[in-house]
């Protein structure tokens, strides 16, 4: 898929497989204990590393969501967006980070990704986009 077409799609609700240039973006915890939710899928299928809670890991990218309020997640989202901008060779499929085990609502997390809307290689969940 060409980068200029990416904004016309959403992250699938369930990701079973990906293209070699796609990265599974999941909510993590700082200790990198990928025991449940999307983090477990990231470890089982997409190369997330036990003990690494942040950043690129195999064909996945962890964003910590379990350490406090939404304000504690924002710096990690900003770091992710900068990383995605620096790596246009990848397409980042953002899951509903923070909206499962961490207990946040889409409306709370979606605003953290507003700067991602202009980044061609970041694909967001429909529920985030519906929150704008």
Brief descriptors of the model:
five-stranded mixed sheet, 27% helix, Leucine Aminopeptidase, subunit E, domain 1, 132 residues
Low-confidence stretches: 1-7
Number of helices: 4
Class in CATH? Alpha Beta
- Helix-strand string: EHEEHEHEH
Q: What can you tell me about this protein's structure?
A:
- The protein has a 5-stranded mixed β-sheet, sandwiched between helices.
- The radius of gyration is 13 Å and the shape is globular.
- It has 132 residues and is an alpha/beta fold.
- It has one domain: 3-Layer(aba) Sandwich (Leucine Aminopeptidase, subunit E, domain 1).
- The chain has helices at 37-46, 70-86, 106-109, 126-129; strands at residues 22-28, 55-57, 60-64, 91-94, 122-123.
- The protein starts with 21 loop residues before the first strand and ends with a helix.
Topology readout:
Elements: E1 22-28, H1 37-46, E2 55-57, E3 60-64, H2 70-86, E4 91-94, H3 106-109, E5 122-123, H4 126-129
Parallel strand pairs: 1-3, 1-4, 4-5
Antiparallel strand pairs: 2-3
Task: Write a short abstract of this structure.
The protein is of the alpha/beta class.
